[in-house]
Request: fold
Amino acid sequence: MKRLTFLIVAILFITFGAERAEASNIKKVDVDVMDATSSYVKLNVKNRRSNSIYISQKFVLKKKVKGEWKKIYFNENVFFAKTIQILPNENKVIKIKWKNYFGKKLKKGKYKIVFIKTKKFSLK
Reply:
């Protein structure tokens, strides 16, 4: 039953999108930025729950411009169909390649990514 609930939540998240959500309220799930470059970001997702979670790879990326966070929009025809299962007490490294979503590398600056939780990183 719990797995079915999380699957439904993942489907709703995929369907309605992350644009409206600033961050998820999934408890006992940690997200850390392992590495961030102009080409990609590596995120470590740790499930500290006693059951599996199912998440979409959909994310929101924002860049700080003149003191305000501005959303960076995806290229046309970008799909987020893949759902990831993370087992109880499992760590999973997720690598997001910017070119796949924006068609280019990112420039220097301060960014934040909303992927389960909101995490900030800088590119120099």
